[in-house]
Amino acid sequence: MEESKNSTQGRSTEEELLTNRQGHPITDNQNMRTVGNRGPTVLENYDFLEKITHFDRERIPERVVHGRGAGAHGYFEAYGTVGDEPVAKYTRAKLFAERGKKTPVFVRFSTVIHGTHSPETLRDPRGFAVKFYTEDGNWDLVGNNLKVFFIRDAMKFPDLVHAFKPDPVTNIQDVERIFDFISNTPEAMHMITFLFSPWGIPANYRQMQGSGVNTYKWVNQKGEAVLVKYHWQPLAQGIKNLTQKEAEEIQGKNFNHATQDLYEAIERGDYPEWELCVQIMSDDEHPELDFDPLDPTKLWPEEQFPFLPVGKMVLNKNPENYFAEVEQVAFGTGVLVDGLDFSDDKLLQGRTFSYSDTQRYRVGANYLQLPINAPKKHVATNQEGGQMLYRVDRKQPHINYEPSTIGGLHEAKQSAPDHQPEVAGKIVRQKIDRTNDFKQAGERYRLMEDWEKDDLIANLTDALLSCDRRIQEKMLDYFFQCDEEYGSRVKQGIEQGRRNRDNGHGGPMGATNPGAGVRQAEQDGHPAEPY
Description:
The protein has helices at about 1-10, 45-55, 155-165, 175-180, 190-195, 245-250, 255-265, 320-325, 345-360, 440-445, 450-465, 470-480, 485-495, 515-525, and strands at about 70-80, 80, 85, 100-110, 125-135, 135-145, 210, 215-220, 225-235, 275-280, 310-315, 340. The protein contains 14 helices and twelve strands. It is of the alpha+beta class. Among the domains are: about 70-165 and about 200-370, Catalase HpII,  Chain A, domain 1 (Beta Barrel); about 440-500, no CATH class. Helix 5 (about 190-195) packs parallel to helix 10 (about 440-445), helix 11 (about 450-465) crosses helix 13 and helix 12 packs antiparallel against helix 13. Its EC number is 1.11.1.6.
């Protein structure tokens, strides 16, 4: 009996045995096949070739933006109301309809400009993208931590990103390139005022706000629509931001701090929660406002358009595999369910094409069949082929077209009328009438606490000292148009800084005197003999 017990020790179940992708057991995962124990290797090294060729391909193209990310699973719980009113008054979207109704979600937080392993302490907008797995299919609410954006027309998106990305020659992010673009883009002043303040470096992902940024529509059972903006407000965990000095100190200790913070909080059961609020506005031009309500560089005044709670989100499960879930998850601003619709926001219209298009390039034509992207409901399409197709979406394999008399798929019955907005006018290439690029930036500056203003001025000064004087003068003109004190303080900072600045190429946005860091590394380095 004892012998029988000992003879089973060290054995593995079938599920624990190492195999290759063909299901062949791997009996030696340490050594290649060679002629003698010193080589050379032989061509029929099948196990090695399978292993190394997959390893050579285990990275997919990095996201052009939002490359660095962290994610988690959870759920959204609806209140059934919007403020004090039944939500059905405004939208027929089922996920909002009933109090207590829970919808599974996956959230990806990210930094925008830098690569996959860049520090999470850098001054940069943060992505806040939520995938709702609803009973009517997926809804992606793709947003940022800040509620406004740099530009209002999607035509400028590649230029914006190129200016913020590293210089194509030096491969260094260069604030002169950034402010060369911004100084010719006055609509960005509102976003710049947020980005160079402590709001530009959230303390972590749990303690930051989120926003859909763009304007969308809600559609009710009658086909009537209103304009909406979405906002995620942290609940028990609150909101925390960092100054530039604090961020640099944290970066010296841990450049993955935000990813680690999110993972460890969920592991210990400290589940982060956010309340989803909406602002609602009638769908018209609103001539009483001094800005266009579809302009994503503007905030809707909260006193006129209050934040109305519609539900809360809880993140309570970490990913089981980073690549399969966080890296391969794919979002798109056009992924809407019945009861949700697009507005005429020009930036949103451009993003709606671009986001899903880039996922097909990055992950593949069948990216929606990956478990993290697939809806949690039955799917039936006539789409055919494409790289990595591993499931046919239809019951009748012979009929991959519609309509058909002899079988195949048929259209669903429409339960409520479409929203039918009226559109009329000449097709033009023009900017909106009410740009008002500086007013809200000035208001934001005046609302800041003194320590936030101090950090904002210091960060802008450090950045602008690396810029051509022509860029400095244009930016100062913008700051003065935002607020007299705002402009005066930046001007004073530049004049003082010119006398003791150690300039160099580029440097991370907002970094304290990056040129001095280059020189310090050479100066402080300890000599060593070759070995």
